[in-house]
Amino acid sequence: MGYIIYRAGEILFHTGDIADSLYLIQVGLVKVSYISLNGDEKILSIFHPGDIFGELFLGQYKHRIGEAQALDDVVVCRLTKHHFLMLVQRFPQISLNFIGHLADGYRETLARMHALMRMEAKYRLLGTLLNLARRYCCNDDAGWFTLHPSITQEDIANMAALNRTTVSLLINDLRRQGVLGGSGRSLRVNRTSVEKMLEEAGLEVLE
Known about the structure:
This protein is of the alpha+beta class.
């Protein structure tokens, strides 16, 4: 168990690597992506400080299904299965917290998949932005969140299974409606407005 520093763009692990440890982010953002055989990337999730990822070793599957890459300079604590089990035996509450972490991740994945099943690009984008706003952003005021600058519109398009041009047009339109704010690479999300639009469209909004 120890702290490791990765520079922006460095790979923490590759698809197919043995899943022998989990990671706790102290500083920075990490994206986990699935890379297809023809090189196409699909972002599975983006993790921020306080998040735990890479826990596949606890189940029946022993290999990573995604590639983890630092979006900016990051500091992570790498915990092997041996050390994790030692901590659980010494501090049983850790296992309950970890189960809660897995349950939250499962619920968030279901909500995101629900939005992605819609054909309308706008709701797929809104579902992705709500997921990002809930997990990665700092509360400003009146329900507004500012996305971390390391998360680009291309990343958002990737997560929403849309193309970059469509996402840019939708973001500009939602800015005019007051649902989104900011300019250029700075993007602010009005969580309350996004939730309302998703609920009016019949999409499940988990809290």
